[in-house]
Amino acid sequence: MSTLGKPTLHYLNDSASHRVLWALEELGVEYNLVLHQRIKGRSPPELFKTHPLGKSPQLVLATGRVLIESSNVIKYLLDTYDTEGKFRGDGVRNDAIREDELSDLVSSSMNGIMGTGVIFLALAHASPFFARPIMNGIWKGLRSAFFDAEVEKFLSYLDDQLKGQEFLMGALPGRPDFLLTFVYDNFEQRKLIKTPSNYPLVQEWSKRCKARPAWQRSMEKGNGYDCSTLGF
Ligand SMILES: N[C@@H](CCC(=O)N[C@@H](CS)C(=O)NCC(=O)O)C(=O)O
């Protein structure tokens, strides 16, 4: 740790950066934390001083290099600090290919579906009152034609992947678990899952993540994590 220097996490309230904060706590990394507050749902100007995209999370290494994209940041943290591979699975079912595959599934495929839901909810919310019924009608149609079935497919798949193990990578949370929290919390808290009880193992998994002392420390250290708000 001392030879590397402390990395600095730029954390935005109610955002994907929470999963990096949780990972830092799980791994016992010494780090600096800079808390940013959304302005009208978006990043404040300070986040653009460290990276031109102004997104969060951003992890600034002691060398000054700035890492972005949660999956990339968490992979860096695991590669650097999980020297015994405790959070990388037992190597049998839970191997490196599974770690990449499930991480991509969560942060690309599922995140894309989640984004569609978030945009439609925001559009309905921002529409003038007379246009709202039309937007809500379009959203309802999209849900029954496509969205609900996609969510169902992904959550059923993950439920199956959790059979016989507590986390997606085994006995401890791994990269896909860190990533999934934000995506699942968005689906769940924004009421985008038609029948949450159809995925009992995912529901238990979510409770298990939040019961971990490292999760609780991350909640105390951050400046809020509520996915039901209408920010981007
Ligand atoms: N794919 C990126 C997403 C980063 C991202 O879009 N973060 C959002 C918060 S969830 C953000 O910074 N939003 C503020 C804005 O764009 O103004 C990741 O996984 O880290």
From TrEMBL:
Gene Ontology molecular function, alphabetical: transferase activity
Entries under Gene3D superfamilies matching the protein: 1.20.1050.10, Glutaredoxin
All residue ranges annotated as the GST N-terminal domain in the record: 5-85
Top-rank taxon, per record: Eukaryota
Domain spans labelled GST C-terminal: 92-230
TM segment ranges: none
Sorted UniProt keywords: Transferase
InterPro entries associated with the record: Glutathione-S-Trfase_C-like (IPR010987), Glutathione-S-Trfase_C_sf (IPR036282), Glutathione_S-Trfase (IPR040079), Glutathione_S-Trfase_N (IPR004045), GST_C (IPR004046), Thioredoxin-like_sf (IPR036249)
Pfam families in the record: GST_C_3, GST_N_2
Similarity comment: Belongs to the GST superfamily.
Protein name in the entry: Glutathione S-transferase 3
Organism: Cyphellophora attinorum
